[in-house]
Amino acid sequence: MSAAGLLEGRRICICVGAGGVGKTTTAAAIGIGMAKRGKRVAVVTIDPARRLANALGLEQLDNEPVRISAAALERLTAPDEPPLSGELWAMMLDPKQTFDELIDRLSPSPQRAAEIKRNGVYQQLSSAVAGSQEFTAIEKLYELAEADFDLLVLDTPPAHSAAEFLNAPGRLSAFLGGGALQVLLRPAGLGMRLLGVGAAPLLKALRLVTGVDLLSDLTAFFGLLGGMTEEFNARALRVQDLLRSDQTAFLLVTSAQDRPIEEAVWFRQTLRERGMPFAGAVVNRVNAPVPRGEVPLDLPTGPAFPPDLAARLDACLADHAVLAQRDATNIERLRTAFAGEPILLVPELAVDIHDAEGLLAIHRELFDE
Amino acid sequence: MSPELFSHRLIFVTGKGGVGKTTVALALGLAAAAAGRRTIVADIQGSGEQQEAELAPGLFRLSVDPQSAMDEYLLVKVPGPAAQLLRQSRLFAAFAMATPGMRELLCMGKLWELAQFERRTPDADAYDLVVVDAPASGHGAAILRTPRTFADIAQVGPIAHQAQTIAATLRDPEFTAVVAVSTAEEMPVNETLELRDALATGPDPLELQAVILNARYPDRFTTAQASAIAAALARTPAPADGVRSALSVALTEHARARREAAQAQRLSAAFGPRLLTLPYLFEPAIELPQLRRLAAELSP
Fold first, then answer.
1. Residue A340 is part of a domain; what is its CATH number?
2. Which domains does chain B have, with CATH numbers?
3. Do residue A182 and residue A82 come from a single domain?
4. Residues of B numbered 107-136 whose beta carbons fall under 8 angstroms of chain A's beta carbons: which are they?
5. Which residue(s) pair with B216 in the sheet?
6. Which ipTM did the prediction report?
């Protein structure tokens, strides 16, 4: 199975995984491969390495997809290959900008949008708060899903845990959608009466804990949002529908080390429980088994290959045999947990993965070329 | 390692995802415990040990969860009936968990509490050192700023007061140290340098006390030796699969070691004596024995 097979019939590919496993590079390599297959592809990256961005021909942060130039594409194509038949577009997510644009879109008037953007709570929310990257990444995906692309490849923000990508946007949406909070802030709200709690003592207790200013800031913020909270809620539901749709595919990216594999197994389970569509996994940087049948190996001899070099080589192979064994065991664990779902293996490569040559090499592994 | 690091009360360990923050945090904890300091390694994932559990003599572990941190806070901080009312109110829980930054503040509050000699948790013993296995750099830097941000936003009231106290602790360089973990790869090094710059800005600038270069690949072959291996590979006929793949593995490792040397050089130029290096462990898994080997490298 190759990455092309995994993505058959899908319009959205979301690369998820623990930090440091190569999500961005994988997303870029998939974009290249699908563009070679004639698709119009947009890759949404989050904070890529500068040289990776340069390899894609992206010189600066831009919050809209930019078409990769012919010159950059030439570097991403092997000399013996025909030019790309599809189109490759790429962008780097700017969370703050995406958030501002969302407010612009949903505000009843430009004045209201400007007021919201000046609000202290909003400024915190849109830049400093954990989860704003996740929230805006999905927002951007939703926006681009309306555009005329055959495939969107989303790289997800760095997080300790892959599940953060599923949880964080919901937390922010719930906040923006008001819900419990609004009931709380509207002193005579129906919710209070239903709960049988007098509003006054609860608000008094809340003031005691939060300080009055925080409460009044929040009240001001929700006052500004007004009817937009309903829009946020409706939007959050549509985004959930999009993520669950059978046009979408979550692609798990992992390395073959213990913790990322554990995380991958667990994340697969989480996706299953939430009814999220799953395409398979990519295991990066796999150490291939090294045959050490005859030790020492039947190496060249002579002055160019002194005995101490042979000894070093053997130590190197012994160490690698440990890693190869570890990787094989971990991949087996993954296979058991996946019960037949596709797993693509990308070996540890000698080339630097952050430049055009590296991207091309990874793309070849993923697409069986 | 300089004994200075271990004289702090709170060590924040952060760095890019996948560089081995947890491993390094535990190794630091083991090293401190071995030096006789009662130490706890805490993360804020809320998914591990929910109670303070002893991992090795003098070394404890805790996973801080914002919900229980909040319950604890209300229990201790809010007087009588108000606390009762708030604890029972699902609305309040929803409010607290949905308010941006509140989860982080509650976690920071708990970490701060762990580092106090006078613990507010009933019957809890004091720790000499709290090592925080913090989230990845971007989020890690944001979390360090949360108390200050809250203190500025809330201004008055118990939360503001608590946030001010925590913020003061964090900016006290005698009390708090921030340590970055990196590998000798381009992105982690970039992120370490960005973290240094991000910490240095804002109302409460912080400095990286140490940078730990984790999992440094060995420099096994000289350039001349690598050429000899490449030449041997070129001469070896294709069917000799074993020999060819063995030679290729060696060349791949050499290329990686060369790339790492260049990245290690960037860290060394930026951090000089504050840079500490831990070797790559060719082991099936990193368990207590492996952690002890790393701890020995970090011992004061």
1. 3.40.50.300
2. 3-219+273-298 (3.40.50.300)
3. no
4. 135-136
5. B279
6. 0.86
Distance CA B265, CA A172 (A): 41
Calculate what percentage of chain A has a pLDDT beyond 70: 83
Check residue A186 and report its DSSP letter: S
A205 and A253 inside one domain:
no
Which residues have C-beta within 8 Å of that of residue A215, sequence separation ≥ 6?
A185, A206, A207
**Distance between CA A20 and CA A35 in Å, rounded?**
25
Look at residue A64 and tell me whether its pLDDT is greater than 50: yes
Query: A42 to chain B nearest CA, in Å?
Result: 23
Task: Name the least confident of A8-17, A194-203, B54-63, B216-225.
Answer: A194-203
Contacts of A37 (CB under 8 A, 6+ apart): A4, A85, A86
Mean of pLDDT over chain A: 83
Q: Where are the alpha helices (DSSP H) in chain B?
A: 21-34, 66-77, 80-88, 90-98, 102-114, 137-154, 158-170, 186-200, 223-235, 241-271, 288-298
Q: Is B139 on the interface with A (CB under 8 A)?
A: yes
Q: Is the pLDDT of residue A188 over 80?
A: no
**CA B111-B114-B120 angle, 5° bins:** 115
Q: Transcribe A102-123 into DSSP letters.
A: HHHHH-SSHHHHHHHHH-HHHH
User: Is A112 inside any structural domain?
Assistant: no
Residue B232 CB neighbours (<10 A) = 23
Average pLDDT for A98-110? 94
DSSP 3-state of B45: coil
pLDDT averaged over chain B? 87
Number of domains in chain A: 2
Smallest CA–CA distance, residue B37 to chain A, in Å, is 28
Provide the pLDDT for residue B25: 98
Amino acid letter, residue A67:
R
Residue A352 falls within a domain, yes or no?
yes
Rounded Cα–Cα distance for residues A294 and A228 (Å): 71
Tell me if chain B has a CB within 8 Å of the CB of A167: no
pLDDT category of residue B99 using cuts at 50, 70 and 90: low
**Is B63 at the interface with chain A, CB within 8 A?**
no
- Closest residue in chain B to residue A315, using alpha carbons only: B220
At B18 the pLDDT is 86
CA-nearest residue to A216 within chain B is B154
Domain limits at A194? 177-228
**B254 against A220, higher pLDDT:** B254
Contact A125 B100 (CB under 8 A): yes
Measured CA to CA in angstroms, residue B285 lies from A22, A205, A257, B113, B300 at distances of 20, 50, 8, 33, 25
Tell whether A120 is within 8 A of chain B (Cβ): yes
Per-residue pLDDT band at A161 (split at 50, 70, 90): low
On whether both A153 and A66 belong to a single domain, the answer is yes
